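cron nightly-structures :: item 1 of 1
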Amino acid sequence: MQVTKFLAYLFFSAFIMVSCSDDDDSTPLSATSIPAENRQPLGSSSNDLLSSTNFTSLTVEMVSVQGFEPTITAVNAFKQFLEDRLFKPDGITINQRSIASSNLAPFTIEEIAEIENNNRSLFNAGDEITVYVYFADGSKSGDTNRQVTLGSAYRNTSIVIYEGTLRRLSTNPNAPMLNIIETATLNHEFAHLLGLVNIGTPLQSNHEDPENSGHCNVPNCLMEAAIEFESGMMNMGNTVPQLDAQCIADLQANGGR
């Protein structure tokens, strides 16, 4: 079963609606070469990612289609986000490499999982936990001219970023810079792996949006379901949203910083 959760509704002059899509694995995905520990339900590895109890280091395997690599600024900001929230005394490493296009765009989540199956090379080992992030050269299947999907967290350690969509959005009048869109999307999707909101990391206060499960009801939080920009991105501009105090309290109670 696919559960669609919204990251943001970006209202440019053309009234484009933008979302994230967090796909759990209630419907089994092809994963013949993915070890069982790296193909569990979304949020189930939240404590392992946040704390040093079972894993003292994290490696993020970033696999990008050639020509669709994320900006250096976004990668550095993403790493800082991880260092601010996770306890990994042996360090956080981001390994980047590029691959040829699959020529499958637009993508179903099943196709994204098969691309992971064919290209992921790093898995949990010893005291190191790994996360796979794929930067796709296209959009998600089902996108329309009014609603597009930025990214999907679809397993416990798997994320896809629809980089083709992000790049198109960044060319809209008054849109955020590409590195801002990339950073916000990466941070938001990884926060779902960390169990926010109430999908693996227990709530410490009542701040889950009752109309958008898995998201925060605090205005301007990184995990808010809907952020409106109107013309010129009303409140955010070129500033990446941050986690609010209640989301941070949830992470800290589950072993994070």
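cron nightly-structures :: done
The beta strands are 17-19, 57-65, 92-99, 128-135, 147-149, 151-155, 158-161.
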